[in-house]
Amino acid sequence: MGQQFVTFGLSEKTYAIPIEDVRAIERVSTIRPVPGAYAAIVGVMNLRGSLLTVADLHIVFNLAPQPLTEKTRLLVIDSVGFLIDETFSVVETETDEEASSQTVGMTAVGRDICFVQAEPLLTALRP
What we know:
This protein has 127 residues and is mostly beta strands. The chain contains 3 helices and 10 strands; from the N terminus they run βββββαβββαββα. β1 and β2 form a beta hairpin. The longest helix is centred in the last third of the chain and has 6 residues, at 118-123.
């Protein structure tokens, strides 16, 4: 049996992250700016009574930031919500090695999928 991944869109590309790394996928509510924060940190948001750091995954990936839309979601990993353009579905690789051996290779929603890992995303937010 393979590994399951959450697929999401970001600037016309499709990415996948292991489902076990994703705490939740949430709608965006009011984001409060944090003065002096690292460039990718958009601010903080109240998520069910807990403070959630909000980061723009576009900036982490050196892409142009996009305006928030009805499809914009927060991909919550650890205590950080990453802004993404939209979510697609959960896909499963045929083997566990398939995803770890390639960065692009599966196709879903008519697009190639780039696999990402949670730890480098979190590390990228540290100055």
